[in-house]
Design a protein that fits this description.
Radius of gyration: 18 Å
Oligomer: single chain
Number of helices: 9
Number of strands: 0
Strand content: under 5%
Shape: globular
Structural class: mainly alpha
């Protein structure tokens, strides 16, 4: 297995930053005294992603990934300004983060957009973004009040919905005989990849933990991050979506 680790970290941390930006923006609009901790962590995530992107592409990328790098950079700057109570910057942060996520998804499409192999990253990447944003934004370390009367985390509902969708999509993907040759080849590889199934199983674990109450919030965040990191590593290392030269190997 050959893994481009900087590319994995670029996508995971940029999606973490984009998710945090959205929920931090929501808090700014609905909370009387929103915490800046979410914006600070968002900026750190975007900074890690920006550095990883430069390493992954040997500097400035080209094509759609250049748009992803630009969106990540705007996310970084806007998050720093949003932490200083710039309300418009909060909106700019999550919009630029969303653009970066979609650019990453488009760049991962190996064939036609409307094919199964094209729709898979278009669905998976936004789900990962919402999951990471929701599971980390509800932590007390992010400024959330530690209220024992609140049984679950603040964003448990979008977290559970997206976790269930991701669990269903990723569990079914390796089990079907797809007509799409790209998706069929990836499915065969994923079926035999332990790291992929670890990510699938861990997403189910997070769903279970989310029903156990606030005491598991930190564990939920850690397991969710490991789950998405495992899925993303398998996605790029053990699937057609991560192959650099699509004209060889998989089309024979």
């Amino acid at each position: 297995m050959i893994t481009n680790w900087p590319l994995v970290f670029f996508t995971v941390f940029s999606q973490l930053g984009a998710g945090l930006a959205f929920f931090s923006w929501w808090k700014d609009r609905h909370d009387a005294a929103p915490s800046s901790r979410g914006w600070q962590v968002c900026a750190v995530s975007a900074a890690v992603a920006a550095v990883a992107g430069l390493i992954a592409f040997g500097g400035i990328a080209s094509g759609v990934m250049l748009a992803a790098q630009a969106g990540c950079l705007i996310l970084l700057v806007a998050s720093v300004l949003a932490a200083r109570r710039c309300s418009l910057c909060g909106l700019l942060a999550w919009l630029s983060g969303a653009c970066a996520v979609m650019a990453e998804a488009v760049a991962a499409i190996p064939g036609e957009v409307c094919a199964t192999s094209g729709l898979f990253p278009l669905a998976l990447f936004p789900l990962c973004t919402v999951i990471l944003g929701a599971v980390f934004s509800q932590l007390k370390q992010m400024g959330e009040p530690d209220d024992d009367t609140v049984r679950y985390g603040r964003f448990y509902m979008p977290l559970r919905i997206c976790l269930w969708l991701m669990l269903i999509i990723t569990a079914i993907a390796p089990c079907l005989a797809w007509e799409d040759p790209f998706m069929r080849k990836s499915a065969i590889i994923w079926m035999q990849t332990q790291l992929y199934w670890m990510g699938v199983i861990f997403s189910g674990v997070v769903i279970g933990l989310s029903h156990m109450g606030r005491i598991t919030l930190l564990v939920q965040a850690i397991v969710a991050f490991v789950s998405i990191l495992g899925l993303r590593t398998a996605f790029y290392a053990d699937g057609v979506h991560g192959v650099i030269d699509m004209s060889t190997l998989y089309m024979h």
